[in-house]
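Researcher: We're teaching a course module on how sequence relates to structure. For the next exercise, students receive a sequence and then see the predicted structure as tokens, so they can try to spot secondary structure elements on their own. Here is the exercise chain.
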Amino acid sequence: MIAQWGHAALWIALALSAAQALFGFVGARRGMVRRVAMTDRSARLAAGLCTLAFLSLMVSYVVSDFSLLNVATNSHTGKPLLYKISGTWGNHEGSMLLWILVLTLAGAAVAGFGSKLPPLFRARVLAVQGGLGIGFLLFLLLTSNPFARITPIPAQGRGLNPLLQDPGLALHPPFLYLGYVGFSIAFSFAVAALWEGKITPAWARWVRPWTLAAWAMLTIGIGLGSWWAYYELGWGGWWFWDPVENASFMPWLAGTALLHSIAVLEKRDAFKAWTVLLALLTFSLSMLGTFLVRSGILTSVHAFAVDPERGLYILSFLALVVGGALALFALRAGSLQATGAYRLFSREGGLMANNLLAATGLATVLIGTIYPLALDAATGQKISVGPPFFEATFVPIAMLLILVMGAGPLLAWRRADGPALLQRLQVAGILAGIAALAGWAFAPVTSEAADVPLISLFGLALSVWVLLALGTDVATRIRIKDDGFSRATWARLIRQPRRYWGMTLSHAGVAVVVLAITMSATWEVEVLDRLRLGETADVGPYSFTLTGAQPVLGPNYSAIRGHFDVARAGRQVATLSPETRTYLNPPMETTEAAILPLFGGDLFAVIGDAGEGGWAVRLYTRPLMSWLWAGCLMVAFGGLLSIGRKSSSAAPQPSGAAAQAALA
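Model: And here is the predicted structure for the students to work with:
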């Protein structure tokens, strides 16, 4: 019975989304306050009904209701409860229902927390959200019904892909969708503003917290996905430049550029057209990722490879939504004239460079992801674009972007003082150079210093550069050079706005991520060997001794569990117990790495099959590896910390002729 309720709730939600779009459009067009109020109520009711539908499907998974095709295909009575729950969104139909749930909740959030928005503008935003809801609900109900029945009812389900039976991946899709779909609000704000023909600093203040929230959630989602890949797939890789990974990375890059562009529009009433275009493109890239995952053109552990007809629907809807938005942008672009004036060497110029570099990096990822698929579709020729391409094209652009990021916060608005800036950054530059030299001269004994890649030394210098530049900016703001650590200095430190601390924490997080990537990629030590019981392998400064390997039983798998005693300088520091698991429903073998995060790096062990020479093992030491995910959390928390804080200087500066005269 509960499944019928969920199915009916989706049809009613479709009707309410249509009402939301209609009332919003008509109410905004005719200035009808009652229609605007009905738009708000429709958005809340649609969200409530989609929540009911989602919970109905989740309960069906928990009680193993195999009368539903979706549950029978993706669940099993022997699964732990956590994976029965996460199985709700671990498939195409359930994940689309999660997408729609987040989309309708986003509309309800605008209706509930957007009371300070002008009523007619809010109606336009909700009308766009309602239109998006119509498209996705029709897709779900007509092509991907999660409540479809199966007869005869099987006694047992097929089970969930064992690679997805993991706590990290159970949390990964919800956070990812909060980011993907959260950007729909920025899209709707942009369309509503183009509809009105007005892009103002006030609009930037309205859209900024929604964009920050979506960007922070997407950051966490991407971080969780890379963490899962690191310990679940068995060889310690955390990023593969897989097309589906790129599909999440591209909206993150566009969202990052959008946030920086919003800052300029809010402060200086500049970058109007560019900011709106980024708002449109960010959610468009999220929809592109949905098409890639669900069109059947990709084969990936991340992908839902379904029939091409579903992909054709999404592609058509994508063309309609994105094409319509870009057409509206083209009609209005001529009226989006910026009034703020500035010199190239200024905070605005730094943010412009940030945007251009981010857009260039985004273009390289987009080309590397789409071109092989387009070539295959057009000619049948298959080519592979993998890490070498992205490392050769994207990484240098990213390094330039980080270089600019270090100096950007110290630049003044409108016109910066070059000599003063160089003086403030002198110490940071010198110490960054010293860090690179130290990385070359004091390479670990397992590496030849002469073989350390130049790009690794540059990455090391960049991370130190950004951290020291941020420290210089904080010291300048609190005037520590003048007053030392006096009470007045501490008072100025405390008075710094939350928005500033959020920006500083996010930038520091990026530096920590770069440092972790550089250290782990350059100075990791890997040993692949076969060990008998009692034998030892030296991995950098550590000794791994295989002390045992025996069969164990899990809740829905059997496994071989190994035991390694890890010592350094003759002193035991840890015991690691990796597993090789065998699942029956569905049949699959997985590798469960044993990882010990230490402050200086990770100890990593994998055990494989037994042979004449002993057990196959893969052992690593990875310097600063766990710092990567600590940096991701810093980036995301910095974004969340910045939400809800109105800038004290949000009003635009003098513009037009006055500004031009001031700069002359």
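Model: If you want an answer key for the exercise: The mean pLDDT is 87. Residues 1-156 form one domain.
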